[in-house]
Amino acid sequence: MASKEQTIRLTMAQALVRYLAAQYIEIDGKRVRLCAGGFGIFGHGNVTCLGEALYEHREELPLRRGQNEQSMALAGIAYAKEKLRQRFMFATASAGPGTTNLLTAAALAHTNRLPILLLCGDTFLTRLPDPVLQQVEHFNNPALGVNDAFKSVTRYWDRITHPAQIVQSLPQAIATMLDPADCGPAFLGLPQDVQGWAWDYPVSFFEERTHHIRRQMPDEREIAVAVSALKAAERPILIAGGGVQYSHAVPELRAFVEAHNIPVVETIAGRANLVHGERLNCGPIGVTGSDSANTLAEEADLIFAVGTRLQDFTTGSWTAFDQDAKLVTLNVARHDADKHSALSVVGDAKLGLGAISNALGGHSFAPTWSDRAEKLTKQWDAYVDGNISPTSDDGQNRPMSYAQVVGAVNQLCDKRDRVVAAAGGLPAEVTANWRTLDVGTVDVEFGYSCMGYEIAGAWGARIAQQEDEAAQDTICFTGDGSYLMMNSDIYSSVLAGNKLIICVCDNGGFAVINKLQNNTGNASFNNLIADSNISVEPFAVDFAAHAASMGALAETVHSIDEFKEAFKRAKSADRTTVISMQVDAFDGWTTEGHAWWEVGTPEVSSSKSVRESHQETEAGRERQRRGM
Q1: Is residue 61 part of a domain?
Q2: What DSSP assignment string belongs to 504-537?
Q3: In the chain, how many domains are there?
Q4: Where is the sequence biased in composition, kind Basic and acidic residues (predicted)?
């Protein structure tokens, strides 16, 4: 007769936290906790039960209190990105608005294929006290609540209606977050009464487990088809995406480039796959790319896309490539590999690059093609030199610009500093003008293009960096619009001792969208503060005074030379420093390196300039690939 399995009686919340604390992963030969703790703002929906459980495990799973639920989750996502998806954090919020504040962050994680565990309060399963505080009632569906909104922005979703369910649900949530192909946010709705209900859990459920991330070997037949296409090509390029880093495939990428003499271009997510100056590292591609990469893309007869989901900013809304160019993809996610009828190789980038290289053997592409790539790259490098310079060719001082600020930081920072940017004009300026000093040191969040990620993401990245002895500073580029939208983690970083260097580029509003507005024939309207519905004369926000009020060191500068000196002081400071400056909203943009980008323009308008712009947009569509 089988012996009865040993059990322990715990609340659902206690069991959930105990299980998380027992999960480990091996990274570079070192065993560490898989969950690095989390972020939480407590309310009546999560404080009494989940809060009690987290308190008991506060040493194993440190809980950090942010100032806004969205920014907490963004910090957790940035942590996971810096850790190359090998570790994750959780974010917990109360029922109601605390939970709905997480929706934007969940969408960002989903879009960027990044893991975070969302533990959200919910209404009572019994419904006996209904309607409760912060409950959104649906008259014809009492089971429907705000937590259901997360179904569209998470990879895994569950509402726990009985304590026993986490025995199945928690392992599935973790498996999703660790799955290279299906990675993304996991959501658990935790009704307030169920959090406190107890059950006799198997003791074995809480045994320590060490996880390893799966590596999928590509199919031999898919490799053979890809290799045949590559061998038939004369002018191929390799597009390296963020998946190269998540797969730890940078050495294989370098080996592939050298063995087969193929030019490499990088996506926004793939920035910092290769270091600036490496042979055949030809710059960023796409709408916010470089002339070198985009010219090569136009001339290439084969596109080999590795670890990229081929977003429109990479493909120029699918106008960046010749209509007849072959498309070969290598991606661990079938959904991404099979886009645009590509010759797809589904599998791990590290294993796939090695297998394809072996199958190619000694095949090397013509030096005339690689020579052209190197020539174009040198020309782009010369353009960047001038673009980041504070003086024009005739020696005159130029108005301060994003590019100049990016260039100044690039010149002064340590090679292991991590730079963070997101949304607005800065992602384009960083992508185009940044010269990578070391692998994996750039986080430009442009998958979801989320304003507010900048400072919160830098905080999460800093937490991750402080676990790495080789890491240096975390540098955040943010515009005034994003700063005003979400800045409270300056205070969080000061309280927690997570030093940041925050560069605030103030151009008087949402200047990059104003530029798009003007470039499509529209008048400036509701983007720059001066062009909005205001009742007083527009004035500049004193960002330095605001940041200082949250405990940061802060100063305002008026030239690039002043900025450089301030940046040096920030490097030597012992806590978060904010450097504020006004930059040109109209003429300070990087003007080269742009591929066509499709935006909706009015077919009918009373404005002649809008009608003319629509015609120009439609003309650009002639190069658009519509499948093969």
Answers
A1: yes
A2: EEE-SB-HHHHHHHHHTTPPP-SSBGGGSS-SS-
A3: 3
A4: 609-622
